[in-house]
Amino acid sequence: MKSFLFPILLCPLFSTAQLKVAEVFSDNMLLQRNKPIKVWGKGIPGRSVNVLFSKEKKTTEITNDSVWIVTFPKQKATTHSQILSVTSEAEQIEFKNILIGDVWICTGQSNMEWPMVKEQHWKDEIHSAEQSNIRLLNPPPAGRNVFGVPYTDSLISRLTTERFYDWNGWQQCDSISVRLMSAVAYYFAKKVFSETGVPIGIINLSIGGAPLETFISTEALSQQVTFRKKVNGNWLSNDALPIWIRERGTQNVGKNNNVPADEQGPNHAYKPGFAFKAGIDSLRNFSVKGILIYQGESNAEEPERVDEYKELFKLFIKEYREVWSNKQLPIYWIQLSSIERKYWAMFRNNQLQLLKETHNTGMAVTSDIGLKNDVHPPDKKTVGERLARWALKKTYYKKIIPSGPLPLSAKYRNGKVIVSFQYMANGLKTSDDKPLKGFSIDGKNETKAIFGDRGIIIPVSSKPQVIYYGWSPFSNGNLVNSENLPASTFKIKVQ
Question: 260, 267 in Cβ contact below 8 A?
Answer without folding.
Answer: yes
